[in-house]
């Protein structure tokens, strides 16, 4: 006679049926889930025979329930840590503890070479430029949010280029007509005098200080022979057949009547009102 093969608890015959061996006892699926199954630390439900179970320090989870307590990232195949009975992914643990590397999220052990910046820490070899991946070491660096860049990469990625020399502007700079300039590039074309904060004029994208514009560029008034600069008194200009006058110099040569916006007669290089022209 064949010996019976029964469930330890309910004595149901297990011959040809699915069963679980628990502490050297044979248990049917129903009794296992009712009496033997571990309770998931997250959802508080039994972890059935058909569920994949994960455990850590006498605690048990369904595979889908084993997630970071902060960001809920699945941790079944990821490194994790525990803090105050909470399971945390490496990144969240670093934020919680403040003694994990911000790049690799591994613990920075005492004696390890590390870098600290704004209350955050990195392994020395992990403190690298986001763009070129080179170690920062003792070089200067820049940050953009949580991102770190060496000076060269920061300039390439974020700095504006000077309208004159086309090189990056790393600090300071001047804006003129919505274009950026180095202060040392924003100078008079003739004498190289810095123009920042000074009066200047631009002619065909070339900048001149007032003095150089007067002597080198400005037209001469056909009346007073002084430069027509557009600065100061008499900014209005009268042009006639290639000659130019300050508005206040555009007068009848004989009676000195202002001829601006009036009829006049040109005689040689002189101009006359109509009445004086009749007397010539």
From TrEMBL:
SMART domains: LIM. It comes from the Eukaryota. GO terms for biological process: muscle organ development. GO terms for molecular function: transmembrane transporter binding; zinc ion binding. Pfam families: LIM, LIM_FHL2-3_N. The keyword Repeat applies. Residues 38-98, 99-160, 161-218, 219-280 form the LIM zinc-binding domain. InterPro entries: Fhl1 (IPR042997), LIM_FHL1/2/3/5_N (IPR056807), Znf_LIM (IPR001781). Keywords: LIM domain, Metal-binding, Repeat, Zinc, Zinc-finger. Transmembrane segments: none annotated. This is Four and a half LIM domains 1a. It comes from Scleropages formosus (Asian bonytongue). The lineage of its organism: Eukaryota, Metazoa, Chordata, Craniata, Vertebrata.
């Amino acid at each position: 006679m064949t010996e019976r093969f029964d469930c330890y608890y309910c004595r149901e015959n297990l011959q040809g049926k699915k069963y679980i061996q628990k502490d050297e006892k044979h248990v049917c699926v129903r009794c296992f889930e009712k009496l033997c199954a571990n309770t998931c630390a997250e959802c508080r439900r039994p972890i059935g025979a058909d569920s994949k179970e994960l455990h850590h320090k006498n605690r048990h989870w369904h595979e889908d329930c084993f997630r970071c307590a902060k960001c809920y990232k699945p941790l079944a195949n990821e490194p994790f840590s525990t803090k105050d009975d909470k399971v945390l992914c490496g990144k969240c643990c670093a934020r919680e503890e403040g003694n994990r590397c911000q790049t690799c999220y591994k613990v920075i052990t005492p004696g390890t070479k590390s870098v600290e910046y704004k209350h955050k820490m990195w392994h020395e070899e992990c403190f690298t430029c986001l763009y070129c991946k080179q170690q920062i070491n003792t070089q200067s660096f820049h940050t953009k949010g949580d991102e770190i860049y060496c000076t060269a990469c920061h300039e390439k990625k974020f700095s504006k280029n000077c309208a004159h020399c086309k090189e990056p502007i790393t600090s300071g700079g001047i804006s003129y007509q919505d274009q950026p300039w180095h202060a040392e590039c924003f100078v008079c074309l003739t004498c190289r005098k810095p123009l920042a904060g000074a009066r200047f004029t631009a002619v065909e994208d070339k900048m001149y200080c007032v003095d150089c514009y007067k002597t080198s560029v400005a037209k001469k008034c056909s009346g007073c022979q002084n430069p027509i600069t557009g600065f100061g008194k008499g900014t209005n200009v009268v042009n006639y057949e290639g000659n130019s006058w300050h508005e206040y110099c555009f007068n009848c040569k004989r009676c000195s009547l202002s001829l601006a916006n009036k009829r006049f007669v040109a005689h040689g290089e002189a101009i006359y009102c109509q009445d004086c022209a009749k007397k010539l």
